[in-house]
Write a structure and sequence with these properties.
CATH class of chain B: Mainly Alpha
Number of domains of chain B: 1
Strand order of the largest sheet of chain B: 3-2-4
Number of strands of chain A: 7
CATH topology of chain B: Arc Repressor Mutant, subunit A
Largest sheet of chain A: 7 strands, mixed
CATH superfamily of chain A: P-loop containing nucleotide triphosphate hydrolases
Order of helices and strands of chain A: HEHEEEHEHEHEH
Shape of chain A: globular
Strand content of chain B: 5-15%
Structural class of chain B: alpha+beta
Distance between the termini of chain A: 51 Å
Oligomer: heterodimer
Bound molecules: guanosine-5'-triphosphate, magnesium ion
Largest sheet of chain B: 3 strands, antiparallel
Structural class of chain A: alpha/beta
Radius of gyration of chain A: 18 Å
Number of strands of chain B: 4
Strand order of the largest sheet of chain A: 2-3-4-1-5-6-7
Number of helices of chain A: 6
């Protein structure tokens, strides 16, 4: 069977594609990463997994996998063909894992990161923020307000998250296309401002 | 902003990958295949019937045009590490070719960012 037909028409990239760019969508557990990527992606979001086999090291601090020898790190991603030569990939991965290889792969060549934050669970964002900073990825904060949560002043968030004065904070609903696109564009404008 | 017990480093959990599909081969050249390296099948008819089933489906998938390494892994439901090993074999044997992403230092960063912004604006208004 011809794989072209089997997979449908919108699987492959345009012939003239030259540049692949990457932006990370990160954040703590259940903050809306997969939703965000699904909202913007032109292809059904894909998931890849890296199966890791433990080589005798201590895994006590990896919650829930004590005693197991393998674990799986999942990455969600989506794609946006932005012009005939440029494609943008959005990669999402949870922040609570500490697998060096996955973070190295994810961050290498990334333009920047959008960190999704639930204002009700700010502390849970610290670990992923540390990782993004450790790899030197410039980022913007997208506050994902879940229904019924009170809004918090940007300045309060900035202080709680220990952000630089120039780090953008945008509100977004990951289920909404326009709102998610705005958050992504705010990040890109910030990245532009850093290159000047 | 600190999470003191979450330090990454060489002392982190030491991990090895499954070697089953890769015939015990080690990790491939990591610089050649990035998550967003674009891959396509080489032009011309090449016999794939003697390839391993995983390699054959990889080549088939790439016959339709370019895909990123991450997409190949997603479609084939294989871990990224394995896909990289398969790809480096296939590239060496001439079955696939790559369009390597331009490393950020060489990127005309300003231009790419402008194109990303323009593309997003055109699409989402
Ligand atoms: N109200 C509201 N709900 C949201 C929003 N984003 C996501 N959700 C919901 O929150 C839940 C978790 O969203 P996911 O997209 O799965 O979150 P995730 O970050 O991918 O979760 P993990 O991969 O498990 O870490 C889902 O039920 C979503 O429908 C949002 O912006 N607003
Ligand atoms: Mg998810």
């Amino acid at each position: 069977m011809d794989s072209r037909r089997a997979l449908g028409d919108n699987v492959h990239l345009p012939e003239k594609v030259q540049i692949a760019a990457k932006i990370l969508v990160v954040g703590h557990f259940a903050v809306g990463k997969t939703t965000f990527i699904g909202t913007l992606s032109e292809i059904p979001p894909l998931r890849t997994e890296e199966t890791m086999t433990q080589a005798g090291a201590d895994v006590d601090d990896l919650k829930g996998i004590r005693g197991k020898t393998t674990t799986t790190v999942a990455m969600d991603f989506g794609r946006l063909t932005l012009n005939e030569r440029l494609v943008l990939y959005l990669f999402g991965t949870p922040g609570q894992q500490r697998f060096v290889q996955v973070w190295e792969d994810m961050t290498r060549g990334a333009l920047g990161a959008l960190i999704l934050v639930d204002p009700q669970r700010l502390r849970e964002s610290f670990a992923v923020m540390d990782l993004v900073e450790k790899y030197g990825i410039p980022y913007a904060i997208a506050v994902n307000r879940f229904d019924g949560t009170p809004s918090r002043a940007d300045e309060e968030l900035r202080e709680a998250l220990d952000l630089l004065p120039e780090t953008p904070i945008v509100t977004c609903d990951a289920r909404d296309e326009r709102s998610s696109a705005n958050a992504l564009m705010a990040l890109v404008r910030y990245l532009q401002s850093r290159t000047r | 902003m600190t999470a003191p017990d979450d330090e990454l480093g060489p002392e982190s959990v030491e991990l090895v990958r499954p070697y089953v599909i890769t015939n015990g081969r080690g990790l491939p050249d990591r610089d050649r295949f990035d998550l967003i390296t674009l891959v396509t099948a080489s032009a011309g008819d090449r016999r794939t019937d003697r390839l391993d089933p995983e390699k054959r489906s990889l080549v088939k998938l790439c016959e339709g045009g370019y895909l990123s390494v991450a997409e190949i892994a997603g479609h084939l439901r294989l871990p990224i590490g394995i896909v990289k090993v398969l790809l480096s074999d296939l590239a060496e044997a001439g079955y696939v070719q790559t369009r390597t992403p331009v490393p950020p230092a060489q990127l005309a960063d300003i231009q790419v960012l402008q194109e990303v912004l323009d593309g997003l604006q055109a699409r989402f208004g």
